[in-house]
Amino acid sequence: MRFKLALNSGVVILGSLASLWLLPSHPAMAQSPTFHSLVLAQSQSAESFYEQGMAKLQRQDYQGAGSDFNEALRLNPNYAEAYYGRGRVRYFLYDDRGAILDFNEAIRLKPNYAEAYYGRALAHMYVEAYEASSNDFLTALRLQPDYAEQPDLWSDFGQLLLAVGENEEALAHFNEALRLQSNHADAHYGRALARYKLNGDLRAFISELEGTARLYREQGDTQSFSETVAEINRARDHLNQQNVGNRQDDSVVCNTWDDYANAGSRRCR
Fold first, then answer.
1. Phi, psi (deg, nearest 5) at residue 184
2. Cβ distance 108 to 117 under 8 Å?
3. Could you give the CA distance from residue 260 to residue 266 in angstroms, rounded to a whole number?
């Protein structure tokens, strides 16, 4: 089930108002130790909310994480990392366009933010902005060359290549992901799909998905396990329909007892 958040730019506006409230209204106030202590406390609070949000994100408490990132941004509207964190929350909650807006802000505030480019690449892919997604993946890799050693990048880029019909290239990317991590379940899923698109072997596709489902179950990814089982069932149904369509009608007309006797194993009609 895809959950949608009713998110808008209100948090950014509130954050801007908060920043105006923090500005000293008189030159003497800027020299006030009380004022600087207040700014420091607000900054520490924003960081604290950000850290809480990241911890909740790791636990898949997306609503809680989103609330913490909102509070961090209210206290510090120029907090690139908090925009990135909230963008991830929105992405995991399937609010891809909202995620793109947050990743845009993170990149505006921190132009060499490789993680934000990577996050935006994924969100762009799911809104079918494929060229923008490819550019973001490549920018993330340029900014952080270590991504080339991470199987997630190869698998995610493979998904993008599948989406645009580059099945051979997609297969190569999934194979590279699996070279780096042999039990990468998403890459196994993608490779199964790429092979099916290339050779149309539905039985092999089902067999590969069954192995992928076992990996998801072993790794505790219950949602992906359920989605893969559902895909296996759809593929089996499709295979059964093919078998019915390909089966020759060898029935015979039976009008007499001799017809029934001579029919043997064939069906009478």
1. -75, 105
2. no
3. 9
What's the pLDDT at 246? 56
What region does 60 belong to: left with phi over 0, alpha with psi -120 to 50, or beta? left
**Gap between the Cα atoms of 235 and 177, Å rounded:** 25
- Stretch 193-215: mean pLDDT: 95
Distances (CA, A) of 45 to 67, 86, 166: 14, 17, 47
SS3 content of the chain, % helix, strand, coil (to 5): 75, 0, 20
Torsion from C-alpha of 146, 149, 152, 157, nearest 10 degrees? 90
Contacts of 83 (CB under 8 A, 6+ apart): 69, 73, 102, 103, 105, 106, 109, 116
Question: Among 11, 17, 9, 82, which residue's Cα sits nearest to residue 45?
Answer: 82
Q: Which two tokens stand for residue 260?
A: 């029934």
pLDDT digits (tens, 9 = 90+) for 142-151: 999 999 999 9
At 69-102, the pLDDT tens digits run: 999 999 999 999 999 999 999 999 999 999 999 9
